Amino acid sequence: MPTKLVLVVRTDLDMGKGKIAAQVAHAAVAAALGTLSTPGFRTWLREGQPKVVLRVSGEDALRQVCADAEAAGLPVQLIQDAGRTQVAAGTATCCAVGPAAVADVDRVTGALPLL
Q: What is the uppermost EC class here (predicted)?
C-alpha cells in the first residue's frame, strides 16, 4: 500500500522561502521521529519518502487539518515557531500528516492546493 507524508503550510504569515523551507523541514523531521517504530514509517522509508507540500490560508484552517487528521487516526505534528526570526514565538506555521497510506492522507488533505 503506497504511503506519503503531507506537509501543510500557512500562507498568511508572509514567511520567506527559506523560512518556509525550515518550517517544512521541522515538520518532516518531527513526523519521521514520531512514527519511527511504525510499519507505516518503514513502508514510507522503503518507498523513497514521498512528500507533498500543500497550503492553507490561515491558522484556523491549519488547526482544522490537524484535528481532521487526529480524528482519522493519522499521525500529525503541528509546528510552532520559536520566534527567533520572522514570526512570533508560538505561531503555528505548518503541520505534517503521515507518513501513512496515501488514501487515508488524501481523505484529510486531498482538497488542499499545492504550495
A: hydrolase
